[in-house]
Amino acid sequence: MKNVILQMAPVPMQLTLRLQQHFTLFNYAQLTKEQQAELIPLVRVLLVNGETPLDDTTMARYPNLQLIAVFGVGYERIDANATYKRNIQISNTPGVLTDDVADLAFGLMLACSRQIVGAQRFIERGDWASQSYPWTNKVSGSRLGILGLGRIGRAIALRASAFNMSVYYHNRTRHADFAEEYCATPQALATHCDFLVVCAPGGENSRALVNAEVLQALGPAGILINIARGSVVDEVALVHAIEHKLIAGAGLDVFCDEPNVPAALLQRDNVVITPHMGSATQSTRKAMSDLVYENISAYFAGKPLLTPADKP
To answer: Is the CB of residue 172 less than 8 Å from the CB of residue 150?
Structure first.
Protein backbone atom coordinates (compact mmCIF):
# COMPACT_ATOMS: atom_id res chain seq x y z
CA MET A 1 0.00 0.00 0.00
CA LYS A 2 1.20 3.50 -0.88
CA ASN A 3 0.49 6.90 0.61
CA VAL A 4 -1.01 5.58 3.84
CA ILE A 5 -2.82 8.05 6.11
CA LEU A 6 -4.00 7.08 9.59
CA GLN A 7 -6.93 9.13 10.88
CA MET A 8 -6.64 9.58 14.66
CA ALA A 9 -9.58 11.92 15.34
CA PRO A 10 -12.97 12.96 13.92
CA VAL A 11 -12.86 15.28 10.90
CA PRO A 12 -15.58 16.24 8.39
CA MET A 13 -16.86 13.45 6.17
CA GLN A 14 -16.19 15.55 3.06
CA LEU A 15 -12.48 15.47 3.94
CA THR A 16 -12.29 11.74 4.61
CA LEU A 17 -14.15 10.92 1.40
CA ARG A 18 -11.81 13.10 -0.65
CA LEU A 19 -8.73 11.56 0.95
CA GLN A 20 -10.10 8.05 0.34
CA GLN A 21 -10.49 8.85 -3.35
CA HIS A 22 -6.82 9.74 -3.83
CA PHE A 23 -4.85 8.04 -1.04
CA THR A 24 -5.07 5.09 1.35
CA LEU A 25 -6.90 6.21 4.48
CA PHE A 26 -7.55 4.16 7.62
CA ASN A 27 -9.53 5.22 10.68
CA TYR A 28 -7.64 4.16 13.80
CA ALA A 29 -10.84 3.76 15.85
CA GLN A 30 -12.25 1.25 13.35
CA LEU A 31 -9.21 -1.04 13.27
CA THR A 32 -8.54 -4.15 15.32
CA LYS A 33 -5.31 -4.31 17.31
CA GLU A 34 -3.90 -6.69 14.72
CA GLN A 35 -4.73 -4.30 11.88
CA GLN A 36 -3.24 -1.39 13.81
CA ALA A 37 -0.01 -3.36 14.25
CA GLU A 38 0.13 -4.26 10.56
CA LEU A 39 -0.14 -0.60 9.57
CA ILE A 40 2.68 0.65 11.81
CA PRO A 41 5.46 0.48 9.19
CA LEU A 42 3.22 1.83 6.41
CA VAL A 43 1.87 5.03 8.00
CA ARG A 44 3.39 8.21 6.58
CA VAL A 45 0.72 10.72 7.65
CA LEU A 46 -1.34 11.08 10.81
CA LEU A 47 -4.59 13.02 10.41
CA VAL A 48 -5.67 14.70 13.67
CA ASN A 49 -7.69 17.64 14.95
CA GLY A 50 -6.74 20.41 17.33
CA GLU A 51 -7.63 18.41 20.43
CA THR A 52 -5.62 15.27 19.58
CA PRO A 53 -2.71 14.57 21.95
CA LEU A 54 0.43 13.21 20.31
CA ASP A 55 3.53 12.58 22.39
CA ASP A 56 6.98 11.31 21.51
CA THR A 57 6.08 7.73 22.46
CA THR A 58 3.17 7.68 20.00
CA MET A 59 5.28 9.13 17.20
CA ALA A 60 8.02 6.57 17.86
CA ARG A 61 5.56 3.78 17.03
CA TYR A 62 5.49 4.88 13.38
CA PRO A 63 9.02 4.73 11.94
CA ASN A 64 7.99 6.15 8.57
CA LEU A 65 5.79 8.95 9.88
CA GLN A 66 6.68 12.21 8.11
CA LEU A 67 3.62 14.47 8.43
CA ILE A 68 1.04 15.28 11.08
CA ALA A 69 -1.87 17.03 9.35
CA VAL A 70 -3.95 19.03 11.80
CA PHE A 71 -7.56 19.93 11.08
CA GLY A 72 -7.49 23.20 13.00
CA VAL A 73 -5.15 26.02 13.93
CA GLY A 74 -4.02 24.98 17.40
CA TYR A 75 -1.68 22.04 17.85
CA GLU A 76 -0.49 22.60 21.43
CA ARG A 77 -1.28 18.99 22.40
CA ILE A 78 1.31 17.75 19.90
CA ASP A 79 4.87 17.49 21.20
CA ALA A 80 6.42 19.87 18.68
CA ASN A 81 9.93 19.28 20.02
CA ALA A 82 9.52 15.56 19.33
CA THR A 83 8.37 16.23 15.77
CA TYR A 84 11.41 18.44 15.18
CA LYS A 85 13.75 15.80 16.60
CA ARG A 86 12.18 13.12 14.39
CA ASN A 87 12.04 15.35 11.29
CA ILE A 88 8.24 15.13 11.17
CA GLN A 89 6.39 18.06 9.62
CA ILE A 90 3.17 19.56 11.00
CA SER A 91 0.56 21.30 8.88
CA ASN A 92 -2.45 23.20 10.21
CA THR A 93 -5.23 25.44 8.88
CA PRO A 94 -4.54 29.07 9.81
CA GLY A 95 -6.25 32.02 8.18
CA VAL A 96 -9.34 30.32 6.80
CA LEU A 97 -11.19 30.35 10.14
CA THR A 98 -10.14 33.82 11.30
CA ASP A 99 -13.34 35.65 10.35
CA ASP A 100 -15.67 33.07 11.86
CA VAL A 101 -13.89 33.05 15.21
CA ALA A 102 -13.75 36.86 15.29
CA ASP A 103 -17.45 37.00 14.45
CA LEU A 104 -18.28 34.64 17.30
CA ALA A 105 -16.18 36.69 19.70
CA PHE A 106 -18.32 39.71 18.90
CA GLY A 107 -21.47 37.63 19.06
CA LEU A 108 -20.54 36.49 22.57
CA MET A 109 -19.65 40.04 23.52
CA LEU A 110 -23.03 41.37 22.43
CA ALA A 111 -25.00 38.42 23.80
CA CYS A 112 -23.29 38.63 27.17
CA SER A 113 -23.30 42.40 27.57
CA ARG A 114 -26.92 42.79 26.44
CA GLN A 115 -27.91 39.50 28.12
CA ILE A 116 -29.72 38.33 24.99
CA VAL A 117 -30.01 34.72 26.18
CA GLY A 118 -31.24 35.80 29.59
CA ALA A 119 -33.80 38.11 28.00
CA GLN A 120 -35.12 35.22 25.91
CA ARG A 121 -35.52 33.11 29.05
CA PHE A 122 -37.32 36.08 30.64
CA ILE A 123 -39.93 36.06 27.86
CA GLU A 124 -40.23 32.27 27.82
CA ARG A 125 -40.94 32.24 31.58
CA GLY A 126 -43.80 34.69 30.99
CA ASP A 127 -42.15 37.39 33.11
CA TRP A 128 -42.58 40.15 30.54
CA ALA A 129 -46.29 40.40 31.34
CA SER A 130 -45.53 41.64 34.85
CA GLN A 131 -42.17 43.42 34.69
CA SER A 132 -39.44 44.85 32.50
CA TYR A 133 -36.11 43.15 31.96
CA PRO A 134 -33.25 44.76 33.93
CA TRP A 135 -31.10 47.24 32.07
CA THR A 136 -27.95 45.82 30.50
CA ASN A 137 -24.62 47.28 29.32
CA LYS A 138 -23.62 49.08 26.13
CA VAL A 139 -20.99 47.69 23.77
CA SER A 140 -20.44 50.58 21.33
CA GLY A 141 -17.90 53.09 22.53
CA SER A 142 -16.55 50.84 25.27
CA ARG A 143 -12.98 49.65 25.87
CA LEU A 144 -11.77 46.38 24.36
CA GLY A 145 -8.72 44.46 25.53
CA ILE A 146 -7.23 41.83 23.21
CA LEU A 147 -5.03 39.18 24.81
CA GLY A 148 -2.98 37.70 21.95
CA LEU A 149 -2.56 39.71 18.76
CA GLY A 150 -2.49 37.08 16.05
CA ARG A 151 -4.74 36.87 13.00
CA ILE A 152 -7.88 36.50 15.10
CA GLY A 153 -6.93 39.28 17.51
CA ARG A 154 -6.39 41.66 14.61
CA ALA A 155 -9.73 40.64 13.03
CA ILE A 156 -11.48 41.40 16.32
CA ALA A 157 -9.76 44.79 16.49
CA LEU A 158 -10.99 45.55 12.96
CA ARG A 159 -14.56 44.78 13.98
CA ALA A 160 -14.16 46.89 17.11
CA SER A 161 -13.46 49.95 14.96
CA ALA A 162 -17.01 49.73 13.58
CA PHE A 163 -18.29 49.81 17.17
CA ASN A 164 -16.18 52.90 17.94
CA MET A 165 -14.32 51.00 20.66
CA SER A 166 -10.99 51.94 22.20
CA VAL A 167 -8.62 48.99 21.72
CA TYR A 168 -5.76 47.85 23.95
CA TYR A 169 -3.69 44.71 23.62
CA HIS A 170 -1.11 42.46 25.22
CA ASN A 171 1.09 40.07 23.30
CA ARG A 172 4.38 38.30 23.93
CA THR A 173 5.97 40.86 21.63
CA ARG A 174 4.88 44.37 20.83
CA HIS A 175 3.68 44.92 17.24
CA ALA A 176 5.15 48.05 15.66
CA ASP A 177 2.58 47.95 12.85
CA PHE A 178 -0.39 47.97 15.25
CA ALA A 179 -1.30 51.47 16.38
CA GLU A 180 -3.43 50.60 19.41
CA GLU A 181 -2.09 50.91 22.96
CA TYR A 182 0.16 48.12 24.21
CA CYS A 183 -0.09 46.85 27.80
CA ALA A 184 2.94 45.17 29.35
CA THR A 185 1.03 42.42 31.22
CA PRO A 186 -2.37 40.70 31.07
CA GLN A 187 -3.22 42.28 34.40
CA ALA A 188 -2.41 45.76 33.10
CA LEU A 189 -4.53 45.04 30.03
CA ALA A 190 -7.48 43.98 32.20
CA THR A 191 -7.42 47.29 34.08
CA HIS A 192 -7.85 49.16 30.79
CA CYS A 193 -10.88 47.36 29.37
CA ASP A 194 -14.58 46.68 29.71
CA PHE A 195 -14.24 43.53 27.60
CA LEU A 196 -11.21 41.25 27.76
CA VAL A 197 -11.10 38.93 24.75
CA VAL A 198 -8.76 35.93 24.99
CA CYS A 199 -7.12 35.12 21.64
CA ALA A 200 -3.83 33.62 22.88
CA PRO A 201 -2.81 30.14 21.68
CA GLY A 202 -3.01 27.24 24.11
CA GLY A 203 -0.11 25.31 25.58
CA GLU A 204 2.01 25.38 28.70
CA ASN A 205 3.33 28.88 28.01
CA SER A 206 -0.17 30.34 28.23
CA ARG A 207 -1.74 28.05 30.83
CA ALA A 208 -3.88 30.06 33.31
CA LEU A 209 -2.62 33.30 31.76
CA VAL A 210 -5.95 34.77 32.83
CA ASN A 211 -5.74 34.09 36.56
CA ALA A 212 -7.46 35.42 39.68
CA GLU A 213 -5.37 38.61 39.60
CA VAL A 214 -6.31 39.35 36.00
CA LEU A 215 -10.00 38.77 36.74
CA GLN A 216 -9.75 41.00 39.79
CA ALA A 217 -8.21 43.71 37.59
CA LEU A 218 -11.03 43.29 35.04
CA GLY A 219 -13.39 44.22 37.82
CA PRO A 220 -17.12 44.04 38.60
CA ALA A 221 -18.09 45.88 35.40
CA GLY A 222 -15.82 43.83 33.12
CA ILE A 223 -16.73 40.91 30.86
CA LEU A 224 -14.41 38.07 29.83
CA ILE A 225 -14.69 36.54 26.35
CA ASN A 226 -12.73 33.36 25.54
CA ILE A 227 -12.62 32.01 21.98
CA ALA A 228 -9.05 30.65 22.25
CA ARG A 229 -8.42 27.62 24.47
CA GLY A 230 -9.94 26.75 27.83
CA SER A 231 -6.50 26.24 29.33
CA VAL A 232 -5.62 29.93 28.91
CA VAL A 233 -8.12 30.82 31.66
CA ASP A 234 -7.93 29.56 35.24
CA GLU A 235 -11.41 28.05 35.26
CA VAL A 236 -11.58 27.70 39.05
CA ALA A 237 -10.74 31.39 39.40
CA LEU A 238 -13.32 32.25 36.74
CA VAL A 239 -16.08 30.34 38.53
CA HIS A 240 -15.15 32.12 41.76
CA ALA A 241 -15.22 35.49 40.01
CA ILE A 242 -18.67 34.79 38.53
CA GLU A 243 -20.14 33.45 41.76
CA HIS A 244 -18.84 36.37 43.82
CA LYS A 245 -19.63 39.02 41.17
CA LEU A 246 -15.97 40.00 40.84
CA ILE A 247 -16.63 40.38 37.10
CA ALA A 248 -19.85 41.27 35.28
CA GLY A 249 -20.04 38.17 33.12
CA ALA A 250 -18.39 35.88 30.59
CA GLY A 251 -18.88 34.64 27.04
CA LEU A 252 -17.15 31.29 26.58
CA ASP A 253 -16.69 29.05 23.55
CA VAL A 254 -13.93 26.91 25.09
CA PHE A 255 -13.40 25.10 28.38
CA CYS A 256 -10.68 23.26 30.26
CA ASP A 257 -12.28 19.80 30.16
CA GLU A 258 -14.44 19.75 27.06
CA PRO A 259 -17.20 18.72 26.68
CA ASN A 260 -17.61 19.13 30.44
CA VAL A 261 -18.60 22.62 31.61
CA PRO A 262 -18.61 23.63 35.30
CA ALA A 263 -22.16 23.57 36.61
CA ALA A 264 -21.60 26.96 38.22
CA LEU A 265 -21.41 28.55 34.76
CA LEU A 266 -24.78 27.20 33.62
CA GLN A 267 -28.19 28.91 33.71
CA ARG A 268 -26.77 32.37 34.36
CA ASP A 269 -28.09 35.42 32.53
CA ASN A 270 -24.61 37.00 32.52
CA VAL A 271 -22.80 33.92 31.17
CA VAL A 272 -23.19 32.84 27.54
CA ILE A 273 -21.65 29.52 26.52
CA THR A 274 -21.20 27.78 23.18
CA PRO A 275 -19.76 24.31 22.39
CA HIS A 276 -16.34 25.21 20.87
CA MET A 277 -17.98 26.25 17.61
CA GLY A 278 -15.85 29.23 16.62
CA SER A 279 -14.98 27.87 13.18
CA ALA A 280 -18.06 25.69 12.76
CA THR A 281 -19.72 27.20 9.71
CA GLN A 282 -20.35 25.34 6.48
CA SER A 283 -18.05 27.50 4.39
CA THR A 284 -15.16 27.56 6.84
CA ARG A 285 -15.20 23.85 7.61
CA LYS A 286 -15.09 23.24 3.85
CA ALA A 287 -12.15 25.62 3.51
CA MET A 288 -10.38 23.89 6.40
CA SER A 289 -11.00 20.49 4.81
CA ASP A 290 -9.67 21.74 1.48
CA LEU A 291 -6.51 23.07 3.12
CA VAL A 292 -5.85 19.82 4.98
CA TYR A 293 -6.26 17.91 1.72
CA GLU A 294 -3.98 20.30 -0.16
CA ASN A 295 -1.26 20.01 2.49
CA ILE A 296 -1.39 16.20 2.42
CA SER A 297 -1.47 16.17 -1.37
CA ALA A 298 1.54 18.50 -1.51
CA TYR A 299 3.48 16.25 0.87
CA PHE A 300 2.83 13.08 -1.17
CA ALA A 301 3.80 14.97 -4.34
CA GLY A 302 7.11 16.00 -2.80
CA LYS A 303 6.15 19.68 -2.75
CA PRO A 304 6.36 22.20 0.12
CA LEU A 305 3.43 22.32 2.53
CA LEU A 306 1.01 25.18 1.98
CA THR A 307 0.71 25.98 5.68
CA PRO A 308 3.53 24.39 7.67
CA ALA A 309 3.51 24.95 11.42
CA ASP A 310 6.31 26.99 12.93
CA LYS A 311 9.30 25.05 14.19
CA PRO A 312 9.69 25.02 18.01
So the answer is: no
